[in-house]
């Protein structure tokens, strides 16, 4: 009996993953209003009833995609403390964000569209947990300033700058492709990451750590 339950759980997890991946693709391409549950089911290769078994409504599925996008952005920065080296923490945070832009561009675009449209579907999770995360990271940055590890800077604007600089490569990939005449490769992303790290750390009066590698 336990083996059957284990197998069922495995199938359930696999189906849920298929649905989330299909939903991410559809929402990125057609937006929330332009995406029907049937379209997601077709993309996932599953019956519509299966999709609604795991996610009762399109709204519930959309919120799940948004929350998963936020979880993708989790990094070592989440657990950084005043004892850590800000140059190492920020360099790694930038690199991690750039990697997500490279590997999950559709997720980033969905999140960007949601924010542009007023973030109505993020009111609960975003206003509570993400706001709490922001408060905690600002406290760490301020502690670095007080400890003399950073010059007097506003942590809020530092984070906005990092987000804008890294998520740009996903949200505005079409613009980048047109300007460059080709899509960015993994090697291009590595070069871009090094430049963003150099620019952000330089703006903070920090040198790029010798140990930093993309």
From TrEMBL:
Name of the protein in question: TetR family transcriptional regulator
Domain HTH tetR-type as annotated: residue spans: 13-73
Biological-process GO terms, alphabetical: negative regulation of DNA-templated transcription
One Pfam family linked to the record: TetR_N
Molecular functions (GO terms): DNA-binding transcription factor activity; transcription cis-regulatory region binding
PANTHER family, sorted: HTH-TYPE TRANSCRIPTIONAL REGULATOR RUTR
Alphabetically ordered keywords of this record: DNA-binding
Keyword Secreted in annotation: no
DNA-binding residues (ranges): 36-55
InterPro entries attached to this UniProt entry: Homeodomain-like_sf, HTH-type_TetR-like_transc_reg, HTH_TetR, Tet_transcr_reg_TetR-rel_C_sf, Tscrpt_reg_YcdC_C
């Amino acid at each position: 009996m336990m083996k059957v339950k284990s197998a069922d759980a495995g199938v359930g997890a696999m189906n849920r993953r298929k649905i989330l991946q299909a939903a991410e693709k559809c929402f990125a391409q057609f937006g929330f209003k332009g995406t029907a549950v049937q379209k997601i089911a077709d993309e996932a290769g599953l019956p519509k009833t299966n999709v609604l078994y795991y996610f009762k409504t399109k709204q519930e599925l959309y919120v799940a995609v948004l929350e998963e996008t936020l979880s993708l952005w989790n990094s070592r920065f989440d657990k950084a403390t005043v004892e850590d080296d800000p140059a190492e923490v920020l360099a790694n945070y930038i690199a991690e964000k750039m990697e997500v832009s490279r590997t999950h561009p559709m997720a980033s675009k969905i999140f960007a569209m949601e924010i542009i449209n007023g973030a109505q579907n993020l009111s609960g999770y975003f206003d509570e947990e993400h706001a709490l995360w922001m408060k905690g990271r600002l406290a760490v940055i301020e502690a670095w300033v007080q400890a003399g590890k950073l010059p007097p800077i506003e942590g809020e604007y530092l984070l906005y700058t990092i987000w804008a600089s890294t998520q740009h490569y996903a949200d505005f990939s079409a613009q980048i492709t047109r300007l460059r005449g080709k899509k960015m490769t993994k090697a291009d992303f590595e070069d871009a990451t090094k430049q963003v790290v150099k620019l952000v750390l330089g703006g903070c009066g920090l040198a790029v750590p010798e140990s930093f590698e993309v």
